[in-house]
Amino acid sequence: MKVGVRGVSVWGPGLAGWAQAQECLQGKTEWVEQEQSPPPASILAPNERRRSGPVTRLAMAVASEACTVAGMETSDLSVVFASANGDGGVIDSILRALSEPGGEVSPTQFHNSVHNAPAGYWTIGHNSIAPATALGCYDWSFGLGLLKAASEAVVEQHPVLFVAYDQPIPGPIGKVRVTKGNFACALLLDPNLSQQAMAQLNLRYVPRSTLPIDMPPHKGLQALAADNPAARSLSLLTCLAQHRAGTVRIACQPGQLEVDVSPC
């Protein structure tokens, strides 16, 4: 199953957008583990912008940049959003409110608690009625989300924007579901291989495999990939940044996703 990558973006500790991240992933600059707040979600009207939470802003940042890099119109673009944790901060806030006298929950908090909130904000911001999917697949959300996005692109023969994102969960839940760092990435996938692209991906789902999954070469980034489900994308992003051909193995329970990368 082949698709072209026409746009890419990443935001995480020491990785503030694709241009800066590319320099780091190429080894031209040193990676420094430093949290950075994503820019405001400029695609949203002021009211929606005020209601949106940090998870939505993180997802919007990479989604918008990937489309800008690709130079593609967004209003009729299908999207797939994938997150293991969703907005854990909102869930923690709601559970705390329910445990207090009165148990009053903010309507805005409840609105943001649903797993498809970032995808919904994206369609609102772009006045889009194109298909929008939100997936939650635990630690395999990146691999299964990428498989879903590529499959839709090939079957429906239209470009698909894929966005993966995860943030730490505060409170008691975060003590048992440990996630470190704020991380998100986006890939604009196009099944039309005649279009100009950064690279071509050939994806194969392997239901049973004993081969280890791939991790980024940098030890600090390996730790980030181990501690944040969306950062499992770093091995693939490193290949794209280095314009390097190779095969990347991504966890995709109950098997693996093998991705052959061919720079264009």
UniProtKB/TrEMBL annotation:
Domain Beta-ketoacyl synthase-like N-terminal: 29-202
Disordered: region residues: 29-50
Gene Ontology terms, MF aspect: acyltransferase activity
Transmembrane parts of this sequence: none
The protein, known as: Beta-ketoacyl synthase-like N-terminal domain-containing protein
Organism: Acetobacter cibinongensis
Organism ancestry: Bacteria, Pseudomonadati, Pseudomonadota, Alphaproteobacteria, Acetobacterales
